[in-house]
Design a protein that fits this description.
With 199 residues, this protein is of the alpha+beta class. Helices cover 47% and strands 20% of the residues. It has 9 helices and 5 strands; from the N terminus they run E-E-E-H-E-E-H-H-H-H-H-H-H-H. Helix 7 packs across helix 9 and helix 8 crosses helix 9. The longest helix is centred in the last third of the chain and has 16 residues. It is globular and about 45 Å long. The protein starts with a strand and ends with a helix.
């Protein structure tokens, strides 16, 4: 198990960053809020978990250990894989996700693409008692420029399976509705909520 990586950021992509550790570039898949804090050429440290499949080894990274624990916890629920768990953490900050699970807030959980009402209810039933011990701390993200936020959110939505047109329209809608001052994670959450209403 690779529980953390620390090294120089070689590149930052749509849904992952490449971090050089001991001369080896590791592709670490993570959420837009975490990617927004990474800068090419600078040092970074991420809590990680390695997901092993028959045909792949995929490394997922998180701003802190609590988010990593929550990522693993989500996958203990039937029907929730790494992609959906990461999507949930992209839409809801760890503390908001824990609160929604603990409070049985189906409406909040269904903001995540891929989680319907039945899926949300299953998550609540299976995880309500388990999230009580978690007190996630969200690392502060650097405030990127509006254009940078817009492009990151559009790319993140495309990475989650939406078309470029859907992503552009959702971001435009949020920005037109007073979202220009939002940081990248908040802009992404609002855009996802907008797309969720259209489904």
């Amino acid at each position: 198990m690779i529980s953390s990586v620390r090294g120089t950021v070689l590149s930052v992509g749509l849904d992952h960053a490449v971090v050089e550790v001991g001369g080896v570039g590791l592709a670490v898949h993570t959420i837009p809020a975490t990617l927004a804090t990474l800068r090419r050429g600078e040092q970074a440290q991420l809590a990680t978990t390695l997901v092993v499949r028959e045909d792949s080894l995929t490394l997922y990274g998180f701003a802190d250990a609590d988010a990593r624990v929550l990522f693993g916890l989500l996958q203990t629920v039937s029907g929730v894989g790494p992609r959906l768990a990461l999507s949930a953490l992209a839409v809801l900050e760890p503390d908001a996700l824990c609160r929604a699970l603990a409070d049985g807030n189906v409406t909040t959980l269904t903001q995540v693409p891929g989680i319907g009402r039945k899926g949300a209810e299953r998550l609540i039933i299976e995880l309500r008692d388990k999230v009580g011990a978690l007190t996630p701390a969200t690392a502060p993200a650097a405030a990127p420029s509006a254009d940078h936020s817009r492009s990151q959110v559009t790319e993140a939505l495309a990475g989650l399976g939406f078309t470029a047109k859907q992503a552009d329209q959702a971001v435009e809608s949020v920005l037109a509705d007073g979202g220009a001052e939002l940081d990248t994670p908040a802009l992404l959450r609002r855009a996802l909520a907008t797309l969720g209403r259209k489904r």
